[in-house]
Description:
WD repeats: 258-299
Number of helices: 5
Structural class: mainly beta
Distance between the termini: 52 Å
Radius of gyration: 24 Å
Largest sheet: 7 strands, antiparallel
Region (Disordered): 328-354, 461-498
Shape: globular
Organism: Caerostris extrusa
Number of strands: 36
Protein name: WD repeat-containing protein 20
Mean pLDDT: 78
Helix content: under 10%
Keywords: Repeat, WD repeat
Strand order of the largest sheet: 11-12-13-16-15-14-30
Amino acid sequence: MAVQCDGGGKDELKTQFMTREGVYKLMTLSEYSRPNRVGFNAQANTPVKVSFVTVPDPSGNGDRICFNVGRELYVYMYKGVKKAADLTKPVDKRVYKGTYPTCHDFNQCTVTNEGVSLLVGFSAGQIQLIDPIKKELSKLYNEERLIDKTKVTCLKWVPGSQNQFLVSHSSGQMYVYKEDLPCGNTPPHYQLFKQGEGFAVYTCKTKSTRNPLYRWVIGYGALNEFSFSPCSKYLATVSQDGFLRIFNYDTMDLVGIVRSFFGGLLCVCWSPDGKYVVTGGEDDLVTVWSFQEKRVVARGHGHKSWVSVVAFDAFTYTDSDGLDLCDSEEEVSPLPNDDASESSKTIASGSKTDSGTLVPNSVCARNSLSGSRSLNITSYRFGSVGQDTQLCLWDLTEDVLKQPIGRTRTSMLLNSPSTHLPTLSKCNSVGNAQANCCPKEASLMDGNLGLASLSIGSKSATLEKEKKPDKEHKRNFSLASRNADKNSLNKSNQNKLDDPVKLIGTSICPRRDEVSMLEPLICKKIAHERLTALVFREDCFVIACQEGFVCTWARPGKGILAQHVGSPSSSNPSGGTVV
Length: 579
C-alpha cells in the first residue's frame, strides 16, 4: 500500500485532505484557544488536553469543551462545525498559581442541565473536583501531597460510577478515590491486597475508610496513560517501562501484556467493540493488540517521532456486508466556496437510518457503534498524532485481522482451564456495554483461582499459581517505604521483563516480520507544534497542539460553517477564576 506523506517546507500545513469517504477540511472559525488567540510558548509545559461533555439542552447546544493551556483551564460551549467559536464567553476560566493542570475528565453519569462534575489533575500531584457551570463545587484531593507528590498523568471517572475515579501519577502509582471520602491528615499506611507479575495492589490500613481506596503499583517509571474498555470490565495501562498491560479491573488480574521495541509507551485506546487495543510511544510506532487472541496483530509505521495520542474513529468502519477500504489517498486541490468536490459529494451521500444518522453509500459506513445493531466489523479506522506534528489515519482491515498465527505468536498468557478467562466476543455494542459484557459465571472473584504468572525464559509460557497466605493481608506498608516497595517489585521482574532484547521474538514483543506492518491511509503535517490531543466526533474530529490551539476538522459533507462570519473579538473574557 503506497502512501504519500508530507515532505515540504516547515510552513506547508495541510488544511484539507481526501480519503475514500471524501474530503476532510479544517474549519478555521471553529478554532478554540486562549481568548486573545495568542499561542502559548512553553516548550517544557504539559500537553494541551481536551475533554467533552454534553449537557441536556432542548436547543441542541449542549456540547461543552474543556482544555488546558499552561496554568489556565477553559470551558466553552462547543459549537462544532456549524457555528463559529465565541472565545469572549467562556463557561468557566481558571488561572492556577504554583501548579498547572495536566489532565481533566467530565463525569458522564452525573450530567444535568444545571451542573457537571469535572476532575482536574495537576503537576504537583493534587486533584480538584469542580463544577464549571454552578461554580459552587470545589474539592481538593491529595491537597497536602501526602498520597503522591508527583505529576498526575491521567485521571478518569470509573465508568458507570457517580463517585469513584482513578488517578495515575508519574511515580508509576495509580489510585482509586471516592468522591465523598477524606484523604486524611497523615500519610496513608498500606497493606498488600494482591500481587502479580509486574504489579501489586494495596489497600489503606485504617480504622475508618479513607482515600485512596486502592493503590496500584505498576511496572517501573511513569504510568503515562490508562483506558477502560467499552464494557468497563478491563483496564489498559501504558508505562515508561515500555509495557502495555491489560487488567481485569474487577478482579485485578493481569490478562495481557505487550512490550514496545524501545522506549516508553505514551498512549492507549480501545476499539469501540472492545476487541482491539492500540498503543503508541517512543518507538514511533502504533501497535495493535487483539484481546481475543492475546497477541500483537499489527504494527504501523508512519510517524517520524514519538506518538502522543491514538484514538479509534467509532463513526467510520466497515461491516461484513462491505468491501475493504481504499488503500490510497489523493492530494486535494483548493476548493472554491468551501464546497465539496463531486467525488466527495457522491461518497458523502446516502440514506438515513431510523435514528436519522446518515449512512453513506460507500463501503465506509459512518455510523456510531454506540446503540447500533451488533455488527461483524471487518475494518476499523483509527488515528494517531505525534510530536512530528503529523496526523496519521489508519485502516485496520480484515486481511490483517485474519492473518494466520505463526509459531512464535502464541500468547504468553495462557488461560487456565479452571479460570475460564472470558473474551469480549459479546461486547460489541458500546451503548449496551454493561449488559453485553462477560457473564457473571465467568467472574474470577473466586479467591482460590490464583494469579497467572508469566515465565519469560522461553517462547513458551507456563502458568503458575501464586500462593497467597492470609498473613500477607496483615502486612503493613507505610508511605515512607513506597519507593522500596516499587524497587522490590522492579528487582523481582528485572531479569524477566525490562530487557527488550530478550523479549524480541516472543509474543510480548514479536519481530517486525512476524506481524503485519501497516502504512497510514494519510499522513499530514497539520501544525507547527507537537500535537497533543485527538478526539473523533460524529461530524468532525478535534485536534490540539502544544501552542494551545484546539482545531476542528469537518468530515466529508459536514463543513457547512459560513466562512464570512466575523472573527470573535480578541478581548479578554470577564469572570475568570484565579486559583
